[in-house]
Amino acid sequence: MVTDLIEMGRWHFGDRDILVVFDAGYDAPRMAHLLRGLPVEVLGRMRSDW
């Protein structure tokens, strides 16, 4: 999706990074690793019942 936004011209160099938000249950650190090199910031909610 991020690469699609860039290819469609919806994001340009100098724009703010794209905020990618994950709910609890998703592996936000893993997604941040997989998305490295792209103009994204990853925000993940953590479970509080552990």
From TrEMBL:
<protein>
    <recommendedName>
        <fullName>Transposase IS701-like DDE domain-containing protein</fullName>
    </recommendedName>
</protein>
<dbReference type="InterPro" id="IPR038721">
    <property type="entry name" value="IS701-like_DDE_dom"/>
</dbReference>
<feature type="domain" description="Transposase IS701-like DDE">
    <location>
        <begin position="1"/>
        <end position="49"/>
    </location>
</feature>
<dbReference type="Pfam" id="PF13546">
    <property type="entry name" value="DDE_5"/>
</dbReference>
